[in-house]
Specification:
The structure is a homodimer of 377-residue chains.
Chain A: E1 16-22, H1 51-63, E2 67-72, H2 76-82, E3 91-94, H3 99-114, E4 119-122, E5 128-130, H4 132-147, E6 151-156, E7 167-173, E8 183-189, H5 194-203, E9 206-216, H6 217-227, H7 229-242, H8 247-254, H9 263-273, E10 277-282, E11 285-287, H10 292-297, E12 302-304, E13 306-310, E14 315-319, E15 322-327, E16 332-336, E17 341-345, E18 349-354, H11 361-371
Chain lengths: 377, 377
């Protein structure tokens, strides 16, 4: 379909392009994260970088300027302001959310049009990872494994029997050069019960599914075509028009018609069943910052007594208190004799809950939505 | 000293003037109550009236326009705005706080100068009372008792063995006309332990000291002169100049030199020892709103599930929560899975504590003071 322009490349690392899906409102992080300012636009770790900026910086040593950011049109200005390096060609804007199958599939299809030899890596913009070097080591192994014809997930060595993550069961070592730890994937398993999670951790055969993967774009599209032919057809048509004057017309016509499906179901699981998926276990620290309890566990935040404080202007006073305070106001916040509390203080909304209840924030957002108080969502 | 101009009055009720000491920062109600806006200027009950306004309205049927408000110069505008009825002659402004002995003593001395037959009643501006009629019945009995030559406290029938209030031990009935429940006072006792408080309640002989009293101004001054001659002398000199062009000069010279002492020690306790104090038990509901836990008990506030909400613009959402929310912002406040919490939300300061810890708010204020964060105090 295109001429082979990449045969002279020495290393698969030279064919690597990083894709950053920057989507998801992060409802469980309301009121800090909200429709107009989702969590990837925030500094949730007290590092001084937003999650999006930190994701870009973590990938830059591997991908250089070879990055594609996929986000909603509403976030265009915020994303461009946080990532001044990226150009028009590096930004894929969704007019409406269509789940990860369409978002990552479109990135794969666009990259395939630009160069069918590209190895893409997809890394969500809202995860916290450290140290960067261990992450980069794992991605390098994944790129070498992908070059051998695999869709490669990066699995996280579990630190506890989490019931909030999916797991990946790994099989035999694949004996790939420059990827000594790459293993076959036996199966993906959904979020388990606590007992089952403990068995997984004890067995040593399971890693957390962090939703990261590295793959040749051609292999991604092959499995997408096999499993979701309608989605594949629409994405290919959009991708063919993408770098032409027809982009807007074709996208406006086709994007709204695409099916909504997660990339896991559209590609990863059927590819695993076909024996095409590998896993590289990562030993870096990883958190998906799914709720404020996980914000509290991030160790780069400031501690005031036993209270983790996030927010530049924070003026927090505590007496016999513990928990997490996240603020983007400059108000004085005084905590007295209250334990494991979660306080999120924004100019127009205040959340007070406990570490144990922080997963239930979504319910509050749903209640606000139902009551018509959508100005703060 | 003055001519007797009051012999023609039919009832001691006609000689009654109400004094409203409106002072005290209410530190334990920070950040709602603060130096620039103390608690009496707030609506803490959700009634639509501030504590000061409600105090005035409760006394008006007894005193008519015969009222004197004693407050700090800083609160002049707020007080006049909440009580547009009061004139210049009804306002006693303190240039600096000098405790209740000087504040109430000055009111007594000024009233004595205006008319030595006056019976004054002193009622703090920061208490919550209901129903007004039972309160007024008790004050009427107290006025008749005062006319018989007593300093009359109004005691509150205890509803529980509080360790936060002082108690009054009552003696025999005084058999005063139109004051059937007036009794002698055996002694004032300081805040007791819980065991002792329970004995007090069980005995039926004790009432809470609500700090209210009714007395002939001449009798007040007689005891003040006997027990605090220096304070009496200074106050008399100020009072003689009060309704003259010399007021400012004399006050500025003498007020700062006056000793600081509570009216209890300066007058009430020595007068009780001399057998000059009576008590009228009040059966009305009374709360001194000393902390946010007591704010939560005030029953005129709005309930959102199990959360008591105070604040006109409040937009509170709760799920499995209980406690008190006091807000003077219009922010959305969401409480999820947190029990017995106290949240006070103001534009520049936020307090989060528990009902059980609400007495400790003062410690936070002290810590802020020590740290130099006095802008929010």
């Amino acid at each position: 379909m295109t001429t082979d322009i990449v045969t002279s490349r020495d290393s698969p690392l030279d064919r690597f392009i990083a894709v950053i899906p920057a989507g998801g409102v992060g409802t469980r992080l309301w009121p800090l994260s909200r429709a107009a300012a989702p969590k990837f636009l925030h500094d949730l770790t007290g590092s001084g970088s937003t999650l999006l900026r930190a994701t870009y910086d973590r990938l830059e040593p591997l991908a250089g300027r070879g990055m594609l950011v996929v986000t909603g049109v509403a976030h265009r200005n915020a994303v461009c302001s946080q990532l001044p390096e990226i150009g028009e060609a590096d930004l894929v804007l969704e007019s409406e959310p269509k789940d990860s199958g369409a978002a990552i599939g479109l990135a794969a299809a666009i990259l395939y049009q630009r160069d069918p030899e590209i190895i893409m890596g997809s890394f969500a913009a809202d995860q916290v990872i450290s140290p960067d070097e261990l992450f980069q080591d794992a991605v390098r192994e994944a790129i070498h494994t992908a070059a051998a014809g695999k869709i490669v997930t990066i699995g996280i060595k579990p630190t506890h029997p989490s019931t909030g993550f999916g797991y990946i069961r790994s099989g035999e070592n694949l004996a790939i050069a420059k990827a000594p730890s790459a293993q076959s994937v036996v199966e993906f398993v959904e979020k388990p019960s606590e007992d089952v999670a403990q068995q997984y951790v004890d067995s040593g055969e399971y890693v957390w599914n962090a939703g990261m993967f590295v793959a040749p774009v051609s292999l991604m599209l092959k499995h997408l075509e096999a499993n979701q032919p309608e989605l594949f057809k629409g994405l290919t048509e959009i991708a063919e028009a993408w770098d032409t004057p027809e982009r807007d017309e074709v996208t406006a016509r086709l994007w709204p018609t695409l099916p909504k499906i997660a990339i896991d179901y559209a590609v990863a699981e059927p590819a695993a069943a076909a024996g095409d998926v590998a896993v590289v276990p990562g030993t870096f620290r990883w958190d998906d910052v799914g709720d404020f309890a996980s914000v509290g566990r991030l160790n780069s935040a400031r501690e005031v007594d036993d209270v983790t404080v996030l927010g530049e202007g924070a003026r927090v006073f505590t007496e016999n208190a513990s928990g997490v305070v996240v603020t983007d106001t400059k108000r004085v916040i005084a905590l007295i004799g209250i334990k494991d509390v979660v306080i999120v203080d924004t100019p127009d909304a205040l959340l007070v809950t406990t570490m144990a209840n922080s997963q239930r924030v979504k319910a509050a957002v749903d209640a606000l939505k139902a009551s018509g108080d959508t100005d703060v969502l």
